[in-house]
């Protein structure tokens, strides 16, 4: 599976939603406004980093440092597991795995669906 910028953006948005945070930027009357405490994806020179908005004027602090797309994907997947997102997604998709007879097969199917749910972008493209 190829890790694209859109996929990483979708994962960061899902992380913000899971933690009850708004998107990093929202539209305001004049331009846009930053939301301190929200996570944002930065991309430059072929690298990506996870940052957190720290000021209302858009100041950021690094969370991950610059990584390749694959490294940041793995970092975000680990963050999702640590924050409990994976367990919540597993609970949401268990109904799809109920047709499986074997308990371990049900669990594996739920885990695969949960990982797919948090790693797929939530928008077309």
Structure description:
By secondary structure, the chain is an alpha+beta fold. The protein is 43% helix and 18% strand. The protein is built from four helices and five strands, in the order αβββββααα. The chain has helices at residues 5-18, 69-82, 85-93, 103-119; strands at residues 25-27, 32-34, 39-44, 47-53, 60-62. A three-stranded antiparallel beta sheet has the order 3-4-5. A two-stranded antiparallel ribbon has the order 1-2. The longest helix is centred in the last third of the chain and has 17 residues, at 103-119. The model has no long low-confidence stretch (mean pLDDT 76).
Kindly state the percentage of residues in helix. Answer: 40-55%
Whole-angstrom Rg: 16 Å
* Major sheet: 3 strands, antiparallel
Average pLDDT: 76
Strand order of the largest sheet: 3-4-5
> How would you classify the helix and strand content by structural class?
alpha+beta
Content of β-strand: 15-25%
Poorly predicted residue ranges: none
Count of helical stretches: 4
Alpha carbon gap, first and last residue: 15 Å
Could you say which overall geometry the principal axes of the C-alpha atoms support?
globular
Number of domain units: 2
**How many E strands?**
5
- How would you spell out the order of helices and strands? HEEEEEHHH
